[in-house]
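yo

u said u wanted the structure for the complex thing, so here. seqs first:
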Amino acid sequence: MPLGGILFLAIFIGAFGTFLIYLARFTGGGLKTGRGVKFETYECGLPAEEKNDTKVSVKFYLTGILFILFDIEIIFMYPWAVTFKDFLQNGTGLYVLGAMGFFLLVFIFGLFWEIKSKALDWD
Amino acid sequence: MGNDFFEITVNAIKLVVIFLMIVQAVPLLVWVERRGSAFIQNRLGPNRVGPLGLIQLLADAVKFLGKEDAPPNKAVKLLYYTAPVFALIPGAIAYCAIPLSTPISVEAFDFFGRHFGPYRFAMQGYDINIGIVFILGISSLAAYTILMAGWGSGNKYALMGALRASAQIISYELALGLSIVGVILLYGTFNLTEMIAAQSGPLAFRWGSNQYVFSFLPNWGIFFQPVGALIFFAAAFAESNRLPFDLAEGEAELVAGFHTEYGGFKMLMFFIGEYAHMMIASGLVVTFFLGGYLIPGFTVDEIKNWVGTFINNGTAVSAVVCAFHLLSYLLKLTFLMWVFIWIRWTLPRFRYDQLMDLGWKTMLPWALGNTIITAGLIYWSYQ
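structre next:
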């Protein structure tokens, strides 16, 4: 199991990055906080007015929802792709191909319905 | 990670070395990027500090150390500080799953009276049997670090840049994931080492009961999956937020995107993350389509026999064979990294709606068609 290696690497990189941030704070003259203009939010020369929770386009939410749907459909194709040659060798290839064909038909129908209903148009 | 102290130590050092390799590649790549862009735009680039300007990046690192740490008042401090650290992690963890060369087999030896059994060290961080799924899953965690940075900065430019970047990443992830299905169909495995092993020898395929062999071409995946390779490479550009897909930064309208409020080493960490994603993309293209670490024209066994005529020690033979294949892998990787830089400085940017249209309406249907045609051809070839 490579889990130990992954955990070790994640912890090592986390420590490395934290060390770098603290090192840069030390060499850069310590942490600065205050009320001066320097600590205001960056804005192109004007005083910053809007808060950070500004309104964002609903398109981003739609893209996120559509991504989840399609991504799950694509993930279903992975186990099929891995075992496809095994099914071909034991003679049930046509059935497996047809099953995935039907699944892809639903997938393609969904994609084209999405394009047709202008869910993917940005303006 | 291993059965005894020696093996665990070597494996841990291996992981750290691969991570430091990524970190060390960044100054070199930035130098190549600057000199390469200067070469493409017919100017000189940084050439004052050291030979060919190579020390410039060292000077930059010293400058980064001198930057003061001044977070904006409205920043969410926890997210603001953890985002750059988390930007480093997914890239390095995913890269460690890519095989870099043939394994080194160490013969049994005695050391201070203790017996150490034969070892076999794979030249990759960890050998995972579901390599592709693992790499895709881990490397797409990068979207979270971008969102963390964008939200934590407390700046609307950063937030909008982060939203654009994450929407772009998840949109192209569909085309990326789907273009790999053809590759998995071709090799019938998730394991990257087995994929590379399947690409050794001359180009050969069977059609029905006939076997066709083209001895002048290597058996690389790009000859079986040209469309998949193109889609994968283009989507990988979008995944790593590079030009022509760098709408996240959009300097004209979004200042610098999600790292507007970052400076010094925190900024550098985002850069390391971006270059790590470039290296993952190049490494995966090499593994899937360009034969991995294999040397075209020679199989691993042929090279092992050839080296065996000079050296008798089994450990030394496997180390030399490993070095040859590592060199081959690094040459292919370097070429692809140069293609990344070359394209960045050659093509102009997209507009945002064009970018989304390309991902959803062009690349996704093409990847679907590629999958269907690949499955059909494999089916017919078995009849």
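Chain A touches chain B through 71 residues (CB under 8 Å). Chain A has a mean pLDDT of 83.
cya
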